[in-house]
Every structure is written in C-alpha cells, then in structure tokens.
Amino acid sequence: MLKQENDNIFKIEFLKFDQSKILEAYRQAVARIGYSTGLVSCISVTKHIEGDNSDPRGIFWMRDGNYDEVQVEKHVDESKYTLFENKLKDTYFHTIYQELSLHFDLGRVRILKLGSRKSLSFHRDPEPRIHIPIITNPGSIMIVEDFAGHMKADGDAYFMNTTKYHTALNGGNEDRVHMVATILKSHLPQKLINY
C-alpha cells in the first residue's frame, strides 16, 4: 500500500467538500461545456477573457536526454484567470472556488482528465497546485520526486508541490479526473507555502 502523504503531497485538513455534489457539478460541467481537445483533456473553470475557452498549457520545465533542464511552452499570467465560468456559477464548483479563494490567491482552476493507462511527462511547474479528486481508481498515482501517493475521490483537497519534478499516472481502467487550482499565494501557515 502506498503511503498517503509527505511534505510535497498532503491533505489540507480543514478543507472537506461533499463528494456527491462534486460529482453532480462534474456532470453539469461536462454537459454544459465539455472537454477541450488537446494534449490534456480540460474544462476551464476560470478564464481571463469571457467566452474564451482555450486552455494554454503554460510554462513548465523538463530534463532533456543530457539531463539538462529545458523550458517547455510559454509563460501564462495565472493572475489574470479571475473570471469564473458563467455556465458553472450555479454549480458546486463555484462553492468550492469561493472556499478556496478564502485561503489562497488562485490562478487557473481547471478540471483535468487523464485517460486510462496514460501518464503525464515528468516536469516541474512555476507554482504549486491544489488537487480535488473527482473520479479516481487505485491505479491513479501522483509522484513528486521520489514519493508516490494516491488521492482518493472522497471530497478531500490536497496540496501538491508541483514546483518540484512530478508526474501523474493512471494505471487503472477508468479515467482519472481532478479539479486542479494553481496557488499564487497562500494565506495559511508556513507548511502550506514551503516551496
């Protein structure tokens, strides 16, 4: 059994959401907006321009064949993603967004889907993230540096230090879906901003 948490991935103890309402909001988001097509299946919950449903990947870094760090993609000004998607304002996602906003300055907030038996590149981002699992399975694993853990879809919110090298893999037979929020600034104790 995988250990559930370490300093780079841990449950935010005071944030707990209603899983049945999360699933209902998810069904509404898929029906009303649907996933964007691209390298990562995404539903943008926040945007920078009303009506713009594009989701730029944003800057990140990887190591090349020589183990040198290289920049991938271009900088995205996360602080501009302050408009909550109108089509989702009556859903539970808006409640979650409002609660998260009490404790964090947020950048992009997205619903990200990782298909069965797929993985992300091993990379690092400029900011940490909050993950709220919506749909998962025991084969869905998050890895940060040399730590691997699993996040259950039970209404919990997790801090993930994505400024360190990390990946997600879905070794299960079902899609893995998370609500992911970029943290620009935390208004919480040092443990949550130790990155």
What features would you describe in this structure?
This protein has 195 residues and is mainly β. The protein has one domain: Sandwich (Jelly Rolls), CATH 2.60.120. The protein has two helices and 14 strands. Strands 1-12-9-14-7-2 form a six-stranded antiparallel beta sheet. Strands 8-13-10-11 form a four-stranded antiparallel beta sheet, with no helix packed on it. The protein is globular, with a radius of gyration of 16 Å.
So how many helices? 2
Largest sheet: 6 strands, antiparallel
Strand arrangement across the biggest beta sheet: 1-12-9-14-7-2
CATH architecture: Sandwich
Distance between the termini: 27 Å
Cα shape:
globular
Beta-strand content: 35-45%
How large, in whole angstroms, is the Cα Rg? Answer: 16 Å
* Uncertain stretches of 5 or more adjacent residues: none
- At the fourth level of CATH, the homologous superfamily is B-lactam Antibiotic, Isopenicillin N Synthase, Chain
* Number of domain units: 1
Helical content stands at: 10-25%
Structural class: mainly beta
The CATH topology comes to Jelly Rolls
Number of strands: 14
SSE map:
Layout: E1 9-16, H1 19-32, E2 41-44, E3 46-47, E4 60-63, E5 69-72, E6 83-84, H2 92-103, E7 104-114, E8 118-119, E9 129-135, E10 140-144, E11 147-149, E12 156-160, E13 166-170, E14 176-186
Antiparallel strand pairs: 1-12, 2-7, 3-6, 4-5, 7-14, 8-13, 9-12, 9-14, 10-11, 10-13
